[in-house]
């Protein structure tokens, strides 16, 4: 992969000095953006762990899950929204707005900790604010850095996500000893990063471009209904969703300058990357619950022991995330995607075959599987820069984020449905000491996950040429 810098910004060709200045500022601001994203992500992990404790303490045990699900819905919408807006609005202004929302949500949650609905609202505001930094980080890395630099920072971004997951899982047995309301104050550390953000984040934007408020809002509503459906499934939501998608399709086809043009929608290489992203991350959310089921139902070990093993898995994911940029620079995008899929196949197939051979062996195989998923992130997101013009990178990343979260949500729904079906455990693989029941059920689930990984490999091999095709850039 050649080490090039593409700086054909939103308003046409930029002078070399402007390109160099934006690149230098971006490299200075990315660590601060990454830190803010980490603080926001830690909040998601922390409250996913303690939401029931919060609900119990406020006398709202039956509604406690809303502390986790409603911010999750917000996250699904704003991932798409912020990425798209980065094509139009200054990254500096967006980040400062995000910090403001993060701080507002933190103070609101801490001061209003005695009211359940204030806590829910505060978590939604916190989540919306914290994600701005993540979206701006990805878009700036795509637009302003060289190929090798971009690969490094994409890997680092992925590593931070999994590191926060590791910290969240490890803290599961400790967090209940602390008054949960103090969790709200952790993101206030982002205030100290405001001078760095204000000084170094590029203040660029699309001059003269009209923001397609209607189109973006309609797409955000569609994203919201998708997220709502997988949190609260209902047939009427599917009906509303179908109608909204039809309206949006007509708007793209007939509207004047929609933010997603017909050319964007019919961009075959970009759609191939989205398809690969969808399949690679389909069972991403199922990694943790399936090992909880195995630990309890097959090995009869405590949740604390399972948590310790899963912490090790996410530490491995963090390490592979850190080095994924260097790996891609060394071997290239296509070989890395193939390697990622092969690792996922090996991890799932091995777990299916050796489900009864020891939980530590399964932990090692889980590390192999999670390494594959982690390594796929950098080449897939790097492919967005190759398949889209630079002025559309924000939209591409936003829709990619939406696709990844939606895929994992669908996969989690499929996983839950299959694991609740007793027929899945009625057929055991002969010759490996697997009995019908919980052993066969987990083993067969791993075979289904293996099939999805093989499909990911097939998609990469079939569509690798269009996925690697360089998109024409602005004049």
TrEMBL record:
Keywords tagged on the record: Antibiotic resistance, Antiport, Cell membrane, Hydrogen ion transport, Ion transport, Membrane, Transmembrane, Transmembrane helix, Transport
Topology of this chain in the membrane: Multi-pass membrane protein
Entry superkingdom: Bacteria
InterPro entries (alphabetical): MFS, MFS_dom, MFS_trans_sf
Main location: membrane
Region named Disordered: 1-23
Matches recorded under SUPFAM superfamilies: MFS general substrate transporter
TM regions (residue ranges): 32-51, 63-82, 94-111, 117-139, 151-176, 182-199, 211-230, 236-253, 273-291, 297-322, 334-354, 360-381, 402-420, 445-463
Function summary: Resistance to tetracycline by an active tetracycline efflux. This is an energy-dependent process that decreases the accumulation of the antibiotic in whole cells. This protein functions as a metal-tetracycline/H(+) antiporter.
Membership in a protein family: Belongs to the major facilitator superfamily. TCR/Tet family.
PANTHER family xrefs: MAJOR FACILITATOR SUPERFAMILY, TETRACYCLINE RESISTANCE PROTEIN
Protein known as: Tetracycline resistance protein
Species for this entry: Bifidobacterium favimelis
Organism placement in taxonomy: Bacteria, Bacillati, Actinomycetota, Actinomycetes, Bifidobacteriales
């Amino acid at each position: 992969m050649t080490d090039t810098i593409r700086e054909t910004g939103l308003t046409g060709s930029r002078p070399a000095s402007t390109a160099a200045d934006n690149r230098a500022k971006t490299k200075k601001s990315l660590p601060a953006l990454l830190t803010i994203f980490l603080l926001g992500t830690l909040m998601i992990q922390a409250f996913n762990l303690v939401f029931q404790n919060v609900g119990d303490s406020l006398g709202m045990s039956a509604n406690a899950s809303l502390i986790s699900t409603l911010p999750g819905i917000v996250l699904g919408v704003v991932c798409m929204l912020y990425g798209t807006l980065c094509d139009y609005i200054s990254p500096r202004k967006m980040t400062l707005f995000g910090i403001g929302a993060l701080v507002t949500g933190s103070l609101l949650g801490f001061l209003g900790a005695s009211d359940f609905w204030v806590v829910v609202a505060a978590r939604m505001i916190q989540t919306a604010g914290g994600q701005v930094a993540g979206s701006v980080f990805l878009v700036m890395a795509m637009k302003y850095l060289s190929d090798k630099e971009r690969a490094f920072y994409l890997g680092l971004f992925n590593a931070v996500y999994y590191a926060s997951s590791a910290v969240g899982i490890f803290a599961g047995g400790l967090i209940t000893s602390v008054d949960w309301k103090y969790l709200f104050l952790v993101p206030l550390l982002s205030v100290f990063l405001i001078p760095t953000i204000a000084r170094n984040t590029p203040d660029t934007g699309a001059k003269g471009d009209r923001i397609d408020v209607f189109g973006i809002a309609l797409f955000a509503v569609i994203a919201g209904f998708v997220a709502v459906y997988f949190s609260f499934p209902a047939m009427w939501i599917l009906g509303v969703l179908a109608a909204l998608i039809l309206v949006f399709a007509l708007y793209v086809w007939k509207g004047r300058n929609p933010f997603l043009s017909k050319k964007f929608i019919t961009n075959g290489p970009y759609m191939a990357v989205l398809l690969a992203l969808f399949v690679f991350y389909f069972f991403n959310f199922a990694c943790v619950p399936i090992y909880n089921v195995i630990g309890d139902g097959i090995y009869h070990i405590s949740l604390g022991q399972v948590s310790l093993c899963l912490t090790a898995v996410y530490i491995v994911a963090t390490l592979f995330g850190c080095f994924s940029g260097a790996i891609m620079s060394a071997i290239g995008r296509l070989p890395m995607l193939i390697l990622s899929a092969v690792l996922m196949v090996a991890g799932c197939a091995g777990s299916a075959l050796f489900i009864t051979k020891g939980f530590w062996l399964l932990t090692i195989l889980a590390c192999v599987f999670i390494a594959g998923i982690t390594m796929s992130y950098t080449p897939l997101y790097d492919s967005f820069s190759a398949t889209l013009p630079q002025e559309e990178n924000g939209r591409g990343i936003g829709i990619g984020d939406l696709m990844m979260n939606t895929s994992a949500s669908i996969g989690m729904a499929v996983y839950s449905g299959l694991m609740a079906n007793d027929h899945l455990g009625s057929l055991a693989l002969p010759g490996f000491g697997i009995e019908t029941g919980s052993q066969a059920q987990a083993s067969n689930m791993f075979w289904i996950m293996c099939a999805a990984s093989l499909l990911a490999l097939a998609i990469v091999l079939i569509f690798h040429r269009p996925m690697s095709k360089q998109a024409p850039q602005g004049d």
